[in-house]
Amino acid sequence: MAEGRVIDLRSDTVTQPTPAMREAMARAEVGDDVFGEDPTVKRLESMAAGLLGKEAAVFVASGTMGNLTSLLALCARGDEAIVGSESHILHYEVAGAAGVGGIQLREAPNDARGRLDLDAVAATMRGQNIHFPRTAAVCLENTHNRCGGGVLTADEVAEVAKLAHRHGAAVHLDGARIFNAATALGVPAAELAAEVDTVTFCLSKGLSAPVGSLVCGAADVVARVRKARKILGGGMRQAGVIAAAGVVALETMIDRLAEDHENARLLAEGLSHVPGVQIDPEAVQTNIVVFDVDEGPAFQSRLREAGVLTTGFGPTRLRMVTHYGITRDDIEQALERVRSAAAAAA
Q1: Which is it for the CA torsion 24, 30, 32, 34, positive or negative?
Q2: Is-cis flag, bond preceding 310, omega within 30?
Q3: What was the pLDDT predicted at 314?
Q4: CB contact at 8 A, 264 and 285
Q5: How far apart are the C-alpha atoms of 10 and 17, rounded to whole Å?
Q6: What is the structure's pLDDT at 1?
Q7: Cross-strand partners of 290
Q8: Taking the CB of residue 106, how many other CB atoms lie within 10 A of it?
Q9: SS3 category, 143
Q10: Could you tell me which residues come within 8 angstroms of residue 89 by beta carbon, excluding any fewer than 6 positions away?
């Protein structure tokens, strides 16, 4: 391992809670959340609903739980949900929709920025036929993890939502990093979720809280999500202890996401000048930087030895994510280590 501290760019999930979060957790007012009596959870849910422009919200343990409970609320067993070919729900959530909910996932192709083509979605939706499952939901992702942190605009979300609603299907938005999208576009997060039926977002990624996600939507839908949370064992008791960190995250950590985006652009620009690295720095919109190298796993191992941690996205593709705790100096040091690793490979 190289001298100096390890620069962990695997994910924004490695963020540590801020001192203000730790203090809020220590003094949180709590109650039994399953009985609806935890005042800190209720405050967090009210804040989340307001920020996303929805009637209600429910605090869940993770983004995966948020996506699954949303699908359980929107779909019946034997229904079908359309998801992007590169979506987190499809690739990283252990087929929970099928295994737990009996919900079939059907792919529509994502483009390089994570968008779904309207004609492809329309062609994928089922008509009324005794042989077909019902297309009950269409799922979007914003920002899009596997598509390099790509951002969907409000109009792009609305176009898919209007198409789905015309066909009688609901729309779920996996907005794990929706505040990154809102920051990149300079619009309120509520604008990006205005036309969808349910939207999740994570507290434990760029917002740096230690745990938790929120699902937001109409009150009756959120009530179904809350019941699905209970089915999954997600009913928590004195959850205000962790919700308190989420309150601080929403109050203090959204505006600083722009710093992560600046660092990501600096990182992408630097990588573009490293021999053997293939990346278009202009494609980096938020805090996720995806690039290609020959022999990806071997290059990733060399970076690990040099003290730079990354995530593998396939045989030639690596991902780096900027986040709270990563400074401009860290980015410059990481680039120096990448250049050394590339030179050693050559």
Answers
A1: negative
A2: no
A3: 85
A4: no
A5: 17
A6: 44
A7: 319
A8: 15
A9: coil
A10: 67, 71, 83, 97, 105, 139, 141, 174
Task: Determine the pLDDT at residue 345.
Answer: 76
Query: Can you give 13-57 as a three-state secondary structure string?
Result: HHCCCCHHHHHHHHCCCCCCHHHCCCHHHHHHHHHHHHHHCCCEE
Q: Are 164 and 138 in contact (CB under 8 A)?
A: yes
For the four alpha carbons of 8, 11, 12 and 15, in that order, the dihedral sign comes to: negative
Q: Could you tell me if 297 and 313 are in contact, meaning their C-beta atoms sit under 8 angstroms apart? A: no
Domains and CATH numbers, the chain: 7-15+256-345 (3.90.1150.10), 19-252 (3.40.640.10)
Closest alpha carbon to 18 in 250, 333, 314, 189: 250
pLDDT, averaged in runs of 10, over the chain (346 residues)? 81 98 98 97 98 98 98 98 98 97 98 96 94 97 97 98 98 98 98 98 98 98 98 97 98 98 98 96 97 92 97 94 98 97 85
Beta-carbon contacts of residue 179 (< 8 Å; ≥ 6 apart): 189, 201, 206, 207, 254, 257
pTM of the predicted protein model: 0.96
Residue 144's Cβ-side half-sphere holds a number of Cα atoms within 13 Å equal to 26
- Tally the residues of the chain: 346
* pLDDT value for 3: 62
